[in-house]
Design brief:
Layout (H helix, E strand, L loop, with lengths): L1 E2 L4 E4 L4 E6 L6 E4 L1 E4 L4 E6 L2 E5 L2 E3 L4 E6 L3 E5 L2 E3 L12 E6 L3 E5 L2 E2 L5
């Protein structure tokens, strides 16, 4: 499944803007998408393979991209910025949070730094 429209915005989607579970064989591609202002996660991956290109993950409640349980996230030309630390997960905040045997590959991306 490819999202190739000029801009797909996933904004204010509750706990997770995008929840991908058991997605295999590179079948989910985010191209020129915005995942912003969601309750806890911009993207939450569980046993999933997701490829993102020229997409923005920002101002989500706690974590812009959470990669769990054998997942893989590959981003090219993506922007990660300004996780809020005010969402459902309390004051936790991170641009990318990786846990339990996962892979994250980020190329030519912009990572916004925030004060601790």
């Amino acid at each position: 499944m490819d999202y190739k429209t000029p801009t797909v915005a996933i904004i204010g989607g509750g706990f997770s803007g995008l929840l991908a579970t058991n997605v295999t064989l590179d079948s989910l591609r985010l191209i020129n998408c915005r995942l912003e202002s969601n309750g806890a996660y911009g993207a939450q991956l569980q046993n999933a393979l997701v490829v993102a290109q020229d997409s923005t993950f920002s101002t989500n409640g706690n974590i812009n991209a959470g990669v769990f349980g054998g997942s893989r996230l590959q981003c090219t030309g993506c922007t990660f910025a300004d996780p809020q630390g005010t969402g459902a997960l309390g004051t936790t905040r991170a641009n990318v949070f990786v846990f339990t045997a996962n892979r994250v590959k980020i190329r030519t991306a912009s990572l916004g730094l925030f004060p601790v």
